[in-house]
Amino acid sequence: MKKSLFAAAVVALALVSCNKKTEEVKEAAAAAVEEVAATADSTAGAVADSADAKAEEVKEAAAAKAEEVKEAAAAKVEEAAKEVKEAAKEVKK
User: Fold this and answer.
1) Integer distance in angstroms from the first to the last C-alpha of the chain?
2) How much is the pLDDT for 90?
C-alpha cells in the first residue's frame, strides 16, 4: 500500500511539474509571438517609409530629367529657328 501511495505521489508531482512546464512554454511562446508581431509591425513601417523615400527620389530624378530634355529640345528649336532665318535671308538675296 505504501508503494502505491508513493507511486501515486510521484505521478501527481510529475503531472504538476509537466503542467507548470507546459504553462511556461505557452507563456514563452506567446511572448515570442508578440515580439515577432511587434518586430513585423515596426519593419513594415520602416519598409513603407523607405518605399516612400525611394518613390520621392525617383519622382525628383524624373522631374530633373524631364527638365533637361525640355531644355535640350528648346535649344534645338532655337538652333533650327536660326538656321531657318539664315536660309530665308539667303533666299531673299
Assistant:
1) 136
2) 75
Per-residue buried b or exposed e for 35-68, using 16+ beta carbons within 10 Å of the residue's own CB:
eeeeeeeeeeeeeeeeeeeeeeeeeeeeeeeeee
What per-residue confidence (pLDDT) applies to 41? 72
Ordered mean pLDDT values, 10 residues apiece, the chain (93 residues): 62 62 67 74 79 88 88 87 81 71
**Number of residues written out for the chain:** 93
Please report the DSSP string for 9-50 in residue order: HHHHHHHHHHHHHHHHHHHHHHHHHHHHHHHHHHHHHHHHHH
Instruction: Give the pLDDT score at 23.
Output: 66
Q: Cell triple for residue 83?
A: 538656321
Phi, psi of 60 (to 5 degrees): -65, -40
